[in-house]
Amino acid sequence: VEELTTALETLEDGAVIAIPASIELTETVAIGNKEVTFIFSEDYDKPVSVELQEGKLTIMNGHFNGIDISGKGTVILDNVMSQATEEGDSGLSLQDGADVTIKIVGSVSLLGAKNGDGLEVPYGTKLLLTGDTLVAVGNNGVEYTGIDAYNTTDDETYMNMRGSGIGDAVH
Predict the structure, then answer these.
(1) Which of 32, 66, 92, 126 pairs with 167 at a CA distance of 20 to 30 A?
(2) What DSSP designation does 158 have?
(3) Where are the alpha helices (DSSP H) in 10-161?
(4) CA end-to-end span of the chain, whole Å?
(5) Integer Cα distance of 85 and 77 in angstroms
């Protein structure tokens, strides 16, 4: 744990850091003007928060409980899944004022919880999205309109819930 904490505090250009499922990144990780790669264990299932400072971050593997990105820079998502579990949370959230390029490598799934987006892009943020296969689903993938032909659930608590694949339904 101490070695990982030290590595995250002193990130060097070109650093490749393996992050096991037993560790939770409880603090926002700042990525300065450098290239860094995080390789998460396949069973990592915790949230991740990153502040880009003109940096480039590659995130490989993992099954996250939400990814938050702020600042300016590039994020490469390489075969990851992020599924938010708390109502209103998104699979991946860009924070207000973010200016981010996201490159998808392989297959990436971003799933928003009830009333959350797959990929939340608030008004005023800038996003350039490129790459391979992205699946972005909001609102737990559920619709309930009160009109049987459009419902994908019988759960009436989804009535008037918002949540888009890519957008800003939360605000």
Answers:
(1) 32
(2) G
(3) none
(4) 37
(5) 20
CB count within 10 Å of CB 114 equals 21
Burial class of residue 42 in the structure, from the number of CB atoms within 10 Å of its CB (0-12 exposed, 13-18 middle, 19+ buried):
exposed
Q: Residues 125, 142: contact at Cβ < 8 Å?
A: no
Distance between CA atoms of 38 and 53, rounded to whole angstroms?
Answer: 16
Within 10 angstroms of residue 116's Cβ, the number of other Cβ atoms is 27
Q: Give the C-alpha separation, 122 to 141, whole Å.
A: 20
pLDDT digits (tens, 9 = 90+) for 69-106: 999 999 999 999 998 888 888 899 999 999 999 999 99
Q: What would the pLDDT profile of 97-151 be if each residue is shown by its tens digit?
A: 999 999 999 999 998 888 888 899 988 899 999 999 998 887 766 654 555 545 5
DSSP-assigned beta bridge partners for residue 77:
59, 104
Instruction: Return the DSSP state at 28.
Output: P
- Residue 26 sits at φ, ψ, to 5 deg, of -85, -15
Angstrom distance (rounded) from CA 134 to CA 139 = 17
